[in-house]
Batch of 2 targets.
Target 1
Amino acid sequence: MTDLFTAPPRGQEDPAFPERRSSRSGQRRRRRSKRGRSLVVLLVALVLVGGSGFAVWTNLDSLMGISNPVESKDFPGPGGDQIDVEIPEGATGTAMGQELYDAGVVASVSAFTAAFEANADSVLIRPGTHTMLEEMPARDAVALLVKNEMAELQLTIPEGYTADQIVERAVQVTGLPAADFEAALESPAEIGVPEEADGRAEGWLFPDTYVVKPNDTAVGLLTQMVDRTKGLLNGKNVPPADWETVLTKASLVEREGLHAEDKPKIARAIENRLEDSMALQIDSAVAYGAGKPGTELTDADLDNAENPYNTYEHTGLPPGPIANPGEVSIDAALNPTAGDWKYWVTVNLDTGETKFAETYEQHQEYVQELLEWQAANS
């Protein structure tokens, strides 16, 4: 086997049982009783320390876990100077409120959270850098975030993503329609993909972080990615006639190698197999053509000669790239490490440790090492 296995999807947590809930209810009642006694003691202490107790009172909600009127204060508005605030990807309303509070946009996290929950359109808020105003009413801050008039967005494409995965990520971050990206990919010449790619944009969408402006389009963003790929290949003095081949090899290396130091060795093993007219037997290529994860491949998939990406049934390179490779994998494809390896296998699926062999017999020893690891970690 030559594919890099991936961990299975995370399972769902077990549901809570009724008897556990009743037990926890009793624990909560006991904790509230203790909390009440603690609050009385703390209030007495505040009376004794006089004015200095106000500072402690303002933090009672964090100390006692109760609502604090001081923390719910709000600015009257209309707001002051402009300020840029970064809303992280996946941020909750509370996390957004904390970012805005730290920046001086809202007077309290609780006021923002209440306004966030009261606005049904708050689910439309996208991550990125939003231009806000200092000392805004919380309700106005939520409304401005919902408008999504951002100073800039950052779209980050990881190495090894397929075109479909890139579209999914771009839609999530930019809010642009998926149909716009899909239409652009169906007209690759419109986004700058050369004729050598035979109408496929796969492999040409360079993984990087792109700044998205408010007026950017799907065509414009994908064109930037293609331009980055062509600029990189030009900078490395790769003849245009070789671009598609280099990207195909680099995509195989990208999906097969976890560690940077392994990638030039994988590239060499691929070259050695091609020179000897051996089938590449790369599971990640078969999986790409079958449209499924490599961990779900069956014997029938490996025997399916109708899949043009089946590198068990067809010798030579697949019809094109199977992913969009990063610069490290492109460099590996251009400069493979010297060696006689023809086999590689990942023997530890946690660390990604990969071992290389020159002979099939040695390779089988490493495969056995993988099987033993799987048995010990299943």
Target 2
Amino acid sequence: MARAAVTVIDAGSAVLGYCRQGFEPELAAELGERAAAAGLPGYARTRRNDGYVLFHCEDGAALAQRLHWRGLIFARQKLQLLAELEGLDPKDRIAPMLAALQGRPRFGDLWVEHPDSDAGKPLAGLARSFGNALRPALRKAGLLSDKPQARLPRLHVCFVAGDHALLAQGDPADGAPWPLGIPRLKLLADAPSRSALKLEEALLTLLSPEEKAALLRPGMRAADLGAAPGGWTWVLTREHLHVTSVDNGPLRQHVLDTGLVEHLRADGFHWQPPQPLDWMVCDMVEQPRRVAARMATWLREGWCRNAIFNLKLPMKKRWDETRLCLDLFAEQAQRPLTLRARQLYHDREEITVFAGSARAG
């Protein structure tokens, strides 16, 4: 049997992050800055359009614990790298993996994945079939529990090529609960626009289930700035909120027909509510610093308790612009807030921000 030329990275020497294709430099910059702030500096290893970043440091296990998934912006998933295997023989990829994992504690689950990139997507079939073969082998070796156990680390096998795999582990309580870090959302036929998926994903990703239940209750009142054609308003009405939709453009009639929507033909960037609201959401196309400043005004003046808004990023220096806008928002809001931001799967050249009263989880 042919032997694989295996390169094994020392246990805990790197953090693996998945990201949107083309945003590897932004994730690398973010990990570098956050690692330095945590006292664990290192260096990133990546290439543009790979869809993932490896960040090497002296103690990757400690860094993975200190970099909380909800606090990362450009990482869809955050994992501790265990081993890197190159030159895998297609006839036997399992034996080198078992050897690399020998002596490790049992895992509670197995996910076999691939980067969400042009090069990675053709590996989806391999990932599906290989998981079915690897799972019983891991159990026979005592490396995988008989049934999924959330209290144990999860094993991730990420194929970056047919003969090249990354082995990593994740904490189910501190990571994306979806393979590839991508929630599987379906665009319903009556959604006014695809942008509805952005708000749905934001509510899943930026809020814990407990926070969502506490902060998004039927009967609450919200404003949707720049609402037309009504995608974000529609999502809020599905949560049974009363929505003031502010836009000079038209809303879809079936959104108005819910009886929960008041459409104001006005400039969402300048309108302010006559009384405080529970929520404000905003997906207007504007300069990100201008949006950040306006959103800060809403929170500072008490016009809303919680907000979700998008910041459209420039083509260059996107990490620098992200930091600048979030710092600007925090400074001008002039009140203690929970602030979380993420580049969602359904985002493009933008990030989505939650600001409000939720406690950091």
